[in-house]
Every structure is written in C-alpha cells, then in structure tokens.
Amino acid sequence: MPGPMRNRGPRVKVEHPGRIMKRVLSYMLSNYKWHFAVVLVCIICSAAATLRGTLFMRTLVDDYIVPVLNEGTGDFSGLASALASLAVTYAIGIVCAYGYNRLMVTISQGTMRNLRVQLFEHMESLPIKYFDTHAHGDIMSVYTNDVDTLRQLLSQSIPQLINSSVTLIATFFSMVFLDVPLTILTLIMVGVMLCAASKIGGLSSRYFADQQKDLGALNGYIEEMMEGQKVVKVFCHEEKSVERFRELNSRLRESANNANSFANILMPVCANIGNISYVLCAAIGAILSLSGHWGLTLGTLVSFLTLNKNFTQPVTQMSQQVNSVVMAMAGADRVFRMMDEEPEADNGTVTLVNVRENDDGTLTEVKERTGNWAWRDDKGGEVKYIPLRGDITFDGVDFGYTAEKTVLHDIKLYATPGQKIAFVGSTGAGKTTITNLINRFYDIQDGKIRYDGVNINRIKKADLRRSLGMVLQDTHLFTGTVMDNIRYGRLDATDEECRAAAKLANAHGFIKRLPDGYDTVLTGDGANLSQGQRQLLSIARAAVADPPVLILDEATSSIDTRTEALVQEGMDHLMNGRTTFVIAHRLSTIRNSDCIMVLEHGRIIERGTHDQLIEKKGRYYQLYTGNAIGED
Amino acid sequence: MKRHLFKYARGYKLETVLTPTFTALEVLLEVLIPFITASIIDSVQAGDMMGIYKNGAIMLVLAFLSLVCGALAGKFAAGASSGFAANLRSAMYDNIQTFSFSNIDKFSTAGLVTRMTTDVTNMQMAFQMSLRIAVRAPLMLVCSMVMCFVINAELSMIFLVALVILGCALVFIMSRTFKLFEQVFRRYDALNASVQENVSGIRVVKAYVREEHEDEKFRHAAEELRRLFTKAEGILALNSPVMMFVVYGCIIALSWFGANMISVGGMTTGNLTSMFSYVMGVLMSLMMLSMVFVMITMSAASERRISEVLNEKPDLTEPDDPIMDIPDGSIDFDHVSFSYAHGDGEETLHDIDLHIKSGETIGIIGGTGSGKSSLVSLVSRLYDVDSGEVRVGGIDVRRYDIESLRDAVAVVLQKNVLFSGTILDNLRWGKEDATLEECKAVCKMACADEFIDAFPNGYDTWIEQGGTNVSGGQKQRLCIARALLKEPKILILDDSTSAVDTATDASIREAFATKIPGTTKLIIAQRITSVMDADRILVLDDGGVSGFDTHEKLLETNEIYRNIYETQTQGGGDFDEGKEGGN
Prior knowledge:
By secondary structure, chain A is of the alpha/beta class. In chain A, 61% of the residues lie in helices and 12% in strands. Chain A folds into three domains: 17-339, ABC transporter type 1, transmembrane domain (ABC transporter transmembrane region fold, Up-down Bundle), CATH 1.20.1560; 351-387, no CATH class; 392-625, Rossmann fold, CATH 3.40.50. In chain B, a hairpin with a 2-residue loop joins strand 11 (536-541) and strand 12 (544-549). Chain B contains 19 helices and twelve strands. Chain B has helices at 13-46, 49-98, 101-106, 109-151, 153-200, 202-207, 211-236, 239-263, 269-311, 372-379, 402-408, 423-427, 436-445, 449-454, 472-484, 502-515, 528-531, 551-557, 559-569; strands at residues 331-338, 349-356, 361-365, 387-392, 395-396, 409-412, 421-422, 462-463, 490-494, 520-524, 536-541, 544-549. The model of chain B is unreliable at 577-583 (pLDDT under 50).
C-alpha cells in the first residue's frame, strides 16, 4: 500500500484566491440571499445614521454656537427639535446595527453548518483509497483548523469588510460635499497609508511564509519524538533530542518574531498616518477657514475632521483584515480540495431485495424482511431474481494500488456457498488486498469477480457490502452504548436480536459484567475495553448483520488465553454455514478450512486442503513445519 | 492569563517591559492630539494664525512620535511574544524529557503534540494581546477621562453615567456568553471527535454501508452546534448596538449641554470637539477590553492543557549519591509488588521473588495482562516498585545513576520506533561513536545484515519517520541491533521478534548464545518455540510467578505451561510459527 502522503504545515500560497473567495461567497449566498440583502440594507442605513451625526456637527457649530458667540444671544429653540430628530436617526441606526450583526450570526453559522455537513457527507462518500493515501491527521486538520478559519472569515472579516467599504464610500461623498481641497489632502494621505501598508504587508507575508515552514518542521519533529519518547528514555537520548529541538525552536522564534513584528507595526503605522492626516487637515483647514477661501466655515471644519477620522479608520481596519483573509483562503482551498475529491463511483444496477419463495420455486419480491434475499437484475428490461447464496469466484484477477505496480497477479479462486477459504502467507503477500477487492474497497484492474454469478461491478456497492460481513483485525467501535455498537451491524435489530448476537459471539458474558451492561457507554474507540473484548463486540456486530458471506481477518495480536478461546469460539459460531474468507493465523482455523490458498508475492502458489498441502511438501509444508527460510 | 506563565517571558524581559512602556507613551501622545485640536479650533474662532501654526507643528511632532512609539511597541511585542512561546515550548519539551514511563502513559502522543503547537500558538497570541491591548485600553480609558475632566468637569459627568451603563451591559453580555461559549467549545470537541472516529473507522462504516447513518448523526451534531453558536454569538451581537447607543447618547447630551455651556461662556467650541473625540476613545477602549476578555477566555483551555504538562512531576528521582558502575548482569526481584497507579488500584505484579544469575538466558511467557512487560520494565527502572526491591548486580536499581543503569540494561520495547534518518543514524542511537564495522557486527547478530545489504544504499538507506518504509520484521531486527550496540550487561527483548519468521528468530537466538554469552538475556515471547531453549523459563500468571524452571521440568510440573505448549503445537496455536511434533 502506498505510504501516506504527508504535507507538513499549511500551504501559504493559494493559487486562485479570487475564485476561492467567489466560491465561499456563493456558498453563503445560495441559502441566505435575502438575509444577506437585508444585511446590506442595514449596514447602509447604519452607516448613513453615523454620517448624519457627523454632519450634524456642522449644523450645531454654524447654526447655533457661532451665532450665539457672535451675537451674544442664545436661541436654542430649534436645537432641541434638531437633536430629537437626530436621536430618531440614531435609533434607526442602532436597530439596523443590531439587525445586521444578528443576521450575520445566523448567516455565518448556518453557512458553517451547511459547509460542515456537506464536507462530512462528501468525506463519507470518498473511496477507501482516499483514506489510505492521506494522513488522518491532515484530514482532521481540515475540520479543526481550516473550517475554523472560514468561520472567522464569515462571521468577522466579511461583515467588517462590507461595513468598512460602505463607511468608506459614504464618508468619501460627504467629504466631497463638505470641502474638496481637504478631501484631496485626505486622499493623498490615504495613498501614503496604503503604500506603507502594502510595503509592510509584503514583508510581513514573506516572513509569515518562513514562519509556517519553520512551524511545520518543528511540528514534524515534535510529533516524531513524542511518538518515540519511550525509546528516547531507554536509550538515554534526552540531551540529543533536546539539542535538535532547541535548534528548530529558536529558528521558529526568529521567523515568528520577524513575521509578527511587521504585522504588529502595520496597525500603529496606519493609525498614526491617520493621525497625521487628521493634524494636517486641522491645520490646513484652519488656515483656509481663516483666510476665508472656499467658504470653509468652522462648523464644516469640525465635521470634516470627524469625517477624516472615519475615512482613515476603515482603511486601517481593512489592511488588518488582509492577513486573515489570506489565511482563510488557504483554509478554504484545502476544504474545497477535499470537497472536489472524486466520490466513490457506483455504476451498479443489481440490487439486493427481500423475496418470498413461491410454491413453484419462483421468487416474489416483498417489502418486509423475510430472511430470504435475492439479487434483482433489471438487465435488458426484464426483471430477474437470483437467489443470494454466497457463491464467489475470482477469475484471472490482477490488481495494484497504483497503475504501475501490480500486487496481485492472476488470482483464480472459487468458493461455493458455505465453504471456508483460508489465506495464508507471510506479511505483504497480498492476503488483505484480496479481501479488499471482494467488497470493492478497491476495484480490480483486470479479470472478473462474480457473486452468485453476477459480476460484482454490476452490483450496487451498498447492496454488495450489505451482503458481506467483515471482522477486521483492528476493531473500531463508535461512541455510544454497547448495544448501539452491536446494532451497528443492522440498524433495525431489536434488543433481543442484539443480545442473541452477543451470545453467539461469546460477548454476552463480559458485557453483563460491565457497570451498565448493554447500556455501558463506550468512548474513544472503546478505550475502556480490552483488545479481546473489542474483538468480541466486533464479532457480535457482524453476527447481528447476519450476512451470507464473511470476510475475517484473524487478529495476530496476542490476547490472553481465556479470551482467545472465547474469540475463537465466537468466530467459529459466526462462520458456521457461511461462505467465509479468512486471513488465517490460527492453526485450527486453517485446518478446518475447505481450501487453503498459499500466497506469495501476490500469487497463489499452492492451494488445497491441509492434508493435500502437507503431502505436497511445498511452501505450506515449510511454513507449517517452521523450516521456512526467507524474508517476511 | 494567569501569572505563573508570565515567568516564561524570561530572557525577553526587556521586550516584555518595553512593549507596555511604549504602548503607554503612544497612548499618552494620542490622547494629547484632540486636546491640541481644540486649541486650533479655538484659534480659528479667535483668528489667531500664529496659534494655528504653532499648534499644527506640535501636533505633527506628536503624531510622528506616536507612530515611532507604536511601531516600537509592536516590534517589542512580537519579540516578547515569540520569545515567550519559544520558552514555553522549550520548558514543556524539557519537562517531557524528564518524564518517566508512567508520566508518558498519562498523555497521548497526539495530545502532547497539540499542546506544544496549537496551544502554544494560542497562548502566544493571548500574551501579545495582553501586553498591548490590556495596557492600551485601560490607560486610554483613564487618560481620556482625565482629559475630559480637565476640559470640563461638569460635562464629564455624562461620561460617568455612560460608563456605568456600558459597563453593566458588557458585564451582562459577557457573563451570559461565557457559559454558552464553554458549551460551544465542548460540543465542538465532540463533533471533531466523531469525525476522527469516522476517519479511523471508515472501513467499518463502509463495510456496513452506514454512510447515511453517520451523515444523519453528524447533521444532528452540526445542527446542535449551530444552534448553540448562534445563541452565543447572537448575544454577542448586542455588543456593538449597545456601544452605539451609549456613544450616540453621549453625543446628543454633549451637543445640548455643551452648546448651552458655550453660550454662557463656560467652554469653547474647540473644547466641545475634543470632548467628542474623547467619548470615542473611552468607549472604544471599553470595547477592546471586552474583546481581550473574550480572547483570554478562549485561551484558558490552552493554558490549562499546557500547565498540565508543565506541572507534571517526574515520579522517578535520581538518588543523592548515585552509583555509576553496574558490577554484573545478575538480577534479583526481592518480594516485589507493583501497580501502575502506585498503591491504589489493582496490583499488576505481586510478591515476585526471583533470582537470575549473570549471563543466564531467561524466557518469559504468559497471557496478556499477566505482567510480563511490567516485570522487565522494572529492571531498567522504567517504573518504581511499590514494595520490595529490584537489584541489578546485587544493588538496588534505585541507587544507580539512571543513565548508567539504562546504558547497562538494553531494552527492546514491544512498541518500538525508528526515527527518520539513515539506518546508520538509527543504529548509532545505541552508541554514538560506533564505527561502521561495529554496526555491521551487531546487524549480523540481529540477522539484519542480509536485508540491509540488499538495499541499494545499504547502511545509508534513509528510514522514513516511524520506519514506514521497512517491514515489521525488518524494523524489529534493526531495533534489536540498535540495542546490541550498547553492549549491555542485560538485554531485554519484549516480544521483539513477533514479526520475524521462525527460522530467523532461531538464528538470532543462536547468535546471542555464541556471541554475547556473558550478557543476561530476558526474552518475552508469545511463541513457545522462542523461549523453549532458554536456560530457564518464567511462567507468569495474573501478576504472579506460576513456574520458573527448564522447559522439560515445566512440562511436567506446570499446568499453564503445558497448556500453552499443547495449544500452540496441537491445533489452537499460531500458524505463523514453527511446529515441533505437529499433529
């Protein structure tokens, strides 16, 4: 099997940020078009309210304060009503602000849920190959890290960017309305600010790339050393291990320092260029006002100064968002990459149905569970029912995990219903690979596999797999009760049926002794159970599914003799009367098999019953008598 | 952030102190700017051109200074926080190196990696935020308030009212969301755990065609998360309208009262405009504080996880007056009892009394949970006994220098690991300055030479992380060779040849007998053939000694041994092993 491809550290470079951004937005808009329209209206209203407040300064100073100072008489009768109308405007602004903030929560969280669900559903539809060729840690990081950066993008960056741009545009027009020369001055200063921001931002992102690289290297090292920490201890290798760690750690410190320095400088530089712009406006505006040019009144100047602040602030905020947007795009890229993976193809049309046997021997399809199954083949418009018996043949099957390297050559085998076929051979001979082909975890390159005479490529994958039971060497249990885990084999099984299956699998005894019996909650892949108990549960799970064909991978890991006897007996019960393919390690299993396939380097080199093979004095005999010389 | 982690800023104290200092300076300068703007506006009203020039110049200088201070603060903050993070990682790593096996057992590998990477990054951000904003916001608040009172104490009362309203609202919002966010993050972890379960158990999911069932479970969990998240953030969405309410209220009140005051000559127009600026300053800083609060809350979980590692005390201690030399390879267990939980919980080994001579080969056999691995790990003091004494060379292992003891006792662990590097690099873990000849010699003994020579690059073949590019059996042989290079007085193999075929297994044992006869060998195995020819065989059952004798004697006297022998040779056993007698 090809080794997992590990890409360390997040990629910083994204190829088509525009395209990705568009895709993210279309995600959001597809379900929340109207919500989003309301958000836009609210943002505009709220910005307008703020603007009206700013412009009111001019009215306040020019219409009320200056006349009072100049004429010495106070006529504030109009002021109260002006303030009241401003208050109403403000109230609308506040309501709008709450409206869009609250709606954005609904939109971003709803979008996140849709995204998560879609990502998960897509992942479930991916072929086994995807999981075999991608490190599980990398898959997990898509959920834990990348989806999270998207959440920040949706709930923080996007509303802020919209808000900033609306403020920016509105403020710009108000500034032009109030005073053109000062607007030009402000624009020049914003130009300076953007220049500085892009310079600093460019440096910062270069160092950020370094930081990501160093972080990746350090993560990899930590991962490796933690995995081997016990070996480090027994070899007293602590100092060596620390030495290299120090080196990587200080390299990361340096690049983090550089990257963050520039990122940190960005904000004060922008903010203070904003301040300088404010100061220049104040001074130059004052001069203009005094010299009486362009009719710049004091009130206008006061209003304009506030507008100046309002104009530079969103620019600063937007330049700050750039980094998080870039990071979110990188995360989105990985999320979409996973979503764009080709799902498991299924062109099968033959389905598995419940049937009842009529008196004349023909089969009739029925809805309810009868215990009798048949393949329904609609080929050529004519419906044909083939009884499910568990007859499996391999005919000249070739297979490789990659096109270049064939690992199974010309496999031929034949299993009639109820037969037990054992695969033996050294590690890497291809035993597990063969079992991966029957249930179409992988598709063969050449040859044919037939199930009850039907080419398995024509059977719907779900139905094919439903007709096969699997007990794997590594047992995987799910969070939930013991009962839930057994019922995983067949969701509509009653408690009684689950108990019966547990009894058949010899699991009933230990389950009864658990604190809450069948209701004991298992967490963390059944960490609270022993290896043997987990195996018993996985046998029970297969037993409740009650499939006609079984694929068993006998565990090599040694469990204590008592449990081992139980597991062995459970397996025997399960195999009884079913076609079974077993990757065998136990002598008793092998000897009871109807046919033993001896595999070497992806070929079946010997086949026959135990006695026949012993007689032959070939590879099996060598393995059996322990005189084999060779590689594993 | 709790105080105790602040000590990890050591070595970056200067930066840690300079960051808030420059931040403070920046704030002071920024606070002065609206004050001087007021003068300019008043100058306009008074028609004082000189005043405008003077104040304009002062303001420019202030803004420049503020820029410099801000930039310096940012730079120092980056230095301090990245240094802090590096120290934190280093401290964790160092502490992990002192961990004993029982300490390591407590943490999972993935857990340790997350703690040292993601969690540290979270803390780094929180630290940087604390240094900058936690200083900036309160200072801004206080300074703005002071300036307001300087300008006009009466009008400033409006602020006090506003502050109280805003403070109450923020406290209400924060306290409501805090609990919700805790729930959210717990759900989030559970959701990710279920993804993890699906990724690792995908074969089961697919084999049982349970994709839709899992989808349904996930949809449910994702919806629940959405509901909680929306609830929490929905309350948080009150933040900005509340702030706007207060700011607008202040502006309206200031306009009314300010205009009236100006008309009676109580203040100037410039003063009024600078008051407006300060309103914004005060309220913004309050908002920032609440943001910092949220940040720090979120980093609290990271901090807890980091502290767990940092506070973990190694439970093995070096003796005061350590013995550096191990006289010989004899091993004595003197009424030893041991449990992983030390005292409470089930005893893994009880009352073990054994005496092994230097140079003996001892086979150890017994079911899972019978205590085989536990027993041998006491010899190199990977764990300490609860009662009794383990002696190597006649001296209690607890009196040796740990490093010297472990140099003399080589253990090939059951779950062994190779590291990324060449084969030679890996072998030299056993002996740093080993020559190629020495390495070849041990590989020959461990029967690893044949396959190494078959690699195109021989001893320079690159081993991938975790040794994924060599087979299980090859890995085991390399691990044995690595241990042999230590030239130990005692060699312990903990089920180390399980993936090696029977013939090779036999020749490795043969090599041990001829090449290193003086070394005491403890061999744990599942296959009875691996231990049959040992000088003596120890049969363990349920943490106690069931038998300790030669193969022949045990067959006669020990029922467990006879049972294992019979099942393995007469049908119930492991096919991959050699058979003697057979049917």
